[in-house]
Amino acid sequence: MRYETKSRARVIFHVDMNSFYASVEMAYKPSLKGKPLAIAGNPEERRGIIVTCSYEARKFGVKTTMPLWEAKKLCPDLIVLPPNFDRYRIFSQKIFQTLRDYTDLVEPVSIDEGYMDITEYIQKHPVSIAQDIQNRLLKELDLPCSIGIAPNKFLAKMASDMKKPLGVTVLRKRDIPKILWPMPVSEMHGCGAKTTEKLNGIGIKKIEDLAKANDVQLKNLLGINGIRLKERANGFDPRKVDPDSINDYKSIGNSTTLPRDITSEKDLLSILQSLARTVSARLKNKDVFTTNVAITIRYKNRKTITRSEKLENPIREEQDIYNQAKHIFMKHWDGSPVRLLGITGNDLVEEQHVVKQLDLFTFEEDAKEEPLIETIEQLREKFGHDIIKKGIKVERKEGQTDTSFDKDFLRKN
Amino acid sequence: MKFFIQKDRLIEAVSDVLKAVASRTTIPILVGIKIDTTDEGVYLTGSDSDISIKSFIPREEEDTEIVEIVEKGSIVLHARFFSEVVRKLPESIVEVSVEDQFKTVIRSGNAEFIIHGLDAEEYPRLPQINQENSFTMPTDLLKNVIKQTVFAVSTSETRPILTGVHWTFENNELIAVATDSHRLALKKATLQTSLEQDQSFSIVIPGKSLTELTKVLDDNQEPVEIIVTENQILFKAKNLLFYSRLLEGKYPDTSKLIPTDSKTTTKLNSKEFLEAVDRASLLAREGKNNVIKFAILENDIIEISSYTPEIGKVVEKVKSLAVEGEDIKISFSAKYMMDALRAIDATDITIYFTGSMRPFILKSDSDDTILQLILPVRTF
Questions:
Q1: Residues near B324 by Cβ (< 8 Å), separated by ≥ 6?
Q2: Is residue B282 in a domain?
Q3: Binding residues of A for Mg(2+)
């Protein structure tokens, strides 16, 4: 049996910035406005692909993930800029600040999109609130966005996609058969290339087919996710807007595509060392430790393996992470050329909950610190836990990585 | 080969030797059980090359005939099939006879199985054991020595020597020690038959072997003869031979690591304390570790607590029977504490602390042959 809490229908917004990086560059340098603009990784390295592009560039057929040379062929006047992630972060923070003027229930999903639950903020009609937000972002930050309005996250996300740029789209439950169902499943949020392929394989082409599909068949094909997708196709999505979700770290990882395929053990280990440095800095930034280190190796033939090992005691120092990553790497690397390397810290533990099981043969090292720790303990008892900490916590710029996937900065402190 | 045997005795012997038979083995014939019949009776042998168990079923016992040997001989039968077949036979008497080409017929009542056996000549010989160092111990004491130590061996292969229990023989005494480097269990036992003067030596027995040994030994006070060679140990009980390989390598010297003095001691009722630790760990084991806090408060009150983020916290106060020395706050694994308390199995226990980041020991006032040591957990 499936039912919804009838207490109150929610009003959820999905705010999606339009070609965010390109828009930020234009806001930063207005002379770029109205010109075909693309943001692309360093063309010298393998990363020379279009990250995002302006609507003017899209008219020429330039698309995200297209190699730079191909884009240039389609649009010879294309202006190409390297990404400036620091700039995007600043703008992103301003966007979410603006959204929080309306409600505390703002959940950033990535650097350029987020959900809002404005159910409690009902001074105006939701559409006028959305228009107000859109106008403010355009006027104050010079950034265009599209907003989807719906009773849940999934429908809001689908709605924001329907009109770009500068759209405000309402998607009601009763609109589902008319608007949502005729769309191909590939258009559905949460339905990637592989899922689409699988669904097409059993004759599910349109969202309507999915909405009416057989539960057992879906479950066999996609597991529990199949049932979830079907529920969404029928307009059900029980997920709440959770402002803290961005604070829940499940893992912290970094990977890097190598400028060329590398076979030299020495070179690969030095890359691991630098990845360990970044991961360590990010763990410290977030006051967490990892108890399970994983490494990712992508080979020249694109075959990718991830291997992890659980640790007895939590770690976060660069050298500890490097040693563990090296140990796993040496165990699993088959010696063939490597295209990408990554280190991830899983099973994170917050600093104040970290414990270390002492070892009979090495405990003396820890016991040496006993008098110091006793003093700290006494101070804490008198003045509270935060009165003293070991080491100085400084903002570590080092740990920030230049990818849009790094959402660390979106946390509210 | 042909014999008739009482089914119950056969089932019992098969299930004993089956404990040594590995499901996967590099020596194919070891998936089988070897059966030998002699004038004395029937011998069954199972082995995974680390452990070998030989069980004997005599022709008669207390004037009752158990086996009737018609023709002597040997055969190897697939262990799993043989044991399942024997268990399911209908009557109380089983006939086993080997025909040509190792084809073996097993009959009981109207049921008849034909199993293709293997040549017993191919089966590896059991280690030759000379009576080098030999002594005896009552079965129940031997089982206690094992049970009170073996749980503390390491399960990780990072230091293989720690997967075994260290047995030191000295001055007519056996000292068994096991540690996974986070806790240590020690048990002393007096030997029944004395060793030769000034003779002392030590061996490391795989923890797994000892665990299996306790399963095949009966609960009684019959003596078990223990014979040690350079790389094998043999336990001789009534109608049973248990061989185990010994671990090679030097076991770390743990005697210096066991603290002899203490800053704080507290005496507790074992059962009460064990139950409180168990309750405190209910929430702790949901978290990433199973850590509880232990603090001595005023008036000999002990506070046991645990906090697991997102799940909750638990606090319980236990009255100590006696406290001496400095106050202490210490954290440790609830599992290690429960293992230790269960191993000591006494009404009261005394805990000797030497500092919040140093090993502490648990002892019973009534039994000084057992000691449990635990390394605390450091919190930050």
A1: B264, B265, B266
A2: yes
A3: 16, 112
